[in-house]
Write a structure and sequence with these properties.
By secondary structure, the chain is α+β, with helices and mostly antiparallel strands. A 4-stranded antiparallel sheet has the order 1-2-3-4, covered by helices on one side. Helix 2 packs antiparallel against helix 3.
Length: 136
């Protein structure tokens, strides 16, 4: 008969179990200077950004409970805001390309899916572009 042990808070489980980890930020809303129309050049407009970051195969249980050993979603959120508000950008295609490229530079990120929506460009719909880069 083989004895099994149950992990305790002082002794974490050692397991080879792993899974694909994806960090998701959904519905991040803020104003950005974006567009080719005169009023878009003069007044920032509301946008919404959704991002998924593929971190690949990760242990189901991290080795420790330290924020410095994982991708900090607070930093990811700030990078998105900073990249989208750094300067006026004429095309949504340019902005989403820049943001996708920047997110793929983060340590451990294998792929990025980004969606940016202009929320008030038309009264009857939102306009959005989605870009996917890297491995999925």
């Amino acid at each position: 008969m083989t004895a099994t042990t149950t992990p305790t808070p002082d002794a974490p489980a050692t397991s080879s179990a792993s899974g694909n980890q994806i960090l998701t930020l959904s519905g991040l809303r803020f104003n950005a200077s974006l567009g080719i129309l005169e009023h878009e050049k003069n007044t920032p407009q509301p946008i919404q950004v959704d991002a998924e970051l593929n971190q690949g195969l990760q242990p189901l249980l991290p080795l420790d409970d330290d924020i410095n050993h994982v991708l900090d979603y607070r930093k990811v959120r700030q990078i998105i805001i900073d990249e989208c508000t750094a300067e006026h950008v004429n095309l949504l295609e340019t902005l989403i390309g820049r943001l996708t490229h920047r997110l793929m530079q983060l340590p451990g990120v294998m792929g990025a899916r980004v969606r940016i929506a202009k929320l008030e460009i038309f009264e009857d719909c939102e306009v959005a572009i989605r870009m996917q880069g890297g491995q999925w």
